[in-house]
Specification:
membrane, mainly alpha, DUF2029 domain-containing protein, globular, PIG-M, about 375 residues
Length: about 375
């Protein structure tokens, strides 16, 4: 009965978070990204591709998901944002389920779910701006959890859907392949997983790009390789620096995995967190919602490291408070150079501190 009571609490928290997001979501459209999202959906309806009539700078999956939301609710503000809101709230449930699956106490799992569900930065990202970063983040976490649970096919499907939403989940591919290698010691198993991910992504891409291949290549790949806007990033831009920000974290994760040769829970989630932090730190263009790529992993890893509910709560609240203030402050004052640059230094200093702390703790973590 106690088990089901906590599941009920988890669902209640998610429902409250969903209602909060709905009330904020109906307040109108804000920012320019959501306008580009809608152009992609209109292009998808008219041509069968989000790239033919729009500058759609993402992989194609979100255009289909957003279209489902619009068909369900209508061409209105809530219809435009509903999928981002639903996935954001579902991500909080997945955090709870992940922690419980990893053996974390029910109360601690509820606290960590609440820290995400009521995180102001997450709420503003999905319901005010209608940004969809929780979608690839959810698929990334699901892929790691399914790999740990030995559900390789579901893990491959989840990872593929994450990459088909935004490119960054590809950094978790080496971790999943390494787990298969250590667990099964069969090249064939590694190959099957890799081929399955490749086939799913290729199928989604081909359905969406063959009508306007040149536009799709330009919008999806060349835009990100050559864009020069920086946001919160302090990293100097140079050609292909965005590509390196994906490659270097993947190499780093492989080196750490080969160093430890361990697939313990704390090792896997610590490396995934380090990798995601490296991606953000090395990225030549960073905006507040990018922290969503890493924050759920930070909270999970923090919980695995620190078993006291008090310490987890204090550290979790501290993390979320810092990043929420920085993120929301940047969105509010990005046109004021002095404030924007100050916030970018604080933002990167916090990320770098967490990154270096995890690297320093890492040898002790894997020997626990």
């Amino acid at each position: 009965m106690i088990k089901y009571r906590y599941y009920s609490i988890s669902l209640s928290i998610a429902l409250i978070g969903f209602i909060i997001r709905l009330f904020i979501g109906i307040e109108g459209m804000h920012g320019t990204d959501i306008l580009f999202h809608l152009e992609g959906v209109r292009s998808l309806i008219l041509t069968g591709s989000p790239y033919c009539l729009a500058n759609y700078n993402y992989p194609p999956l979100y255009a289909y998901l957003q279209l489902i939301g619009i068909l369900a609710i209508g061409w209105n503000t809530l219809g435009y944002k509903i999928m981002s809101i639903l996935f954001d709230v579902t991500l909080s449930i997945l955090i709870y389920v992940t922690l419980r699956s990893l053996g974390v106490d029910e109360r601690v799992s509820i606290v960590i779910q609440s820290l995400w569900c009521f995180n102001p930065l997450a709420i503003v990202t999905s319901s005010w701006y209608g940004l969809f970063d929780s979608i690839p983040t959810l698929f990334s976490l699901l892929s790691l959890l399914m790999m740990i649970k030995r559900r390789n096919v579901i893990s491959a499907l989840a990872l593929s859907l994450g990459i088909a939403s935004k490119f960054f989940p590809i950094i978790f591919l080496p971790i999943n392949l390494f787990i298969i290698f250590v667990r099964e010691r069969k090249i064939g198993s590694i190959g099957r997983y890799f081929v399955l991910v490749l086939l799913i992504i290729t199928s989604i891409e081909l359905v969406s790009v063959y009508r306007c291949l040149d536009d799709a290549i330009k919008d999806q790949f060349l835009f990100h390789i050559n864009r020069e806007d920086r946001g919160l990033s302090l990293i100097p831009w140079f050609p292909y620096s965005s590509l390196l920000s994906l490659v270097i974290p993947m190499i780093l994760s492989l080196l750490l995995l080969l160093y430890t040769k361990s697939i313990s829970l704390i090792n896997i989630y610590a490396i995934a967190t380090i990798e995601s932090l490296a991606l953000i730190l090395l990225n030549p263009f960073v905006y507040p919602h990018y922290i969503i790529w890493s924050l759920p992993l930070m909270l999970i890893t923090l919980t695995l490291i620190v078993h006291s509910i008090t310490k987890v709560s204090i550290l979790g609240v501290t993390l979320i408070t810092i990043f929420s203030i920085v993120g929301l402050g940047y969105w509010r004052f990005y046109k004021v150079p002095s404030i924007a640059i100050t916030l970018s230094y604080i933002y990167n200093l916090c990320l770098l501190t967490i990154f270096l702390s995890l690297l320093k703790l890492y040898p002790r973590l894997v020997n626990r």
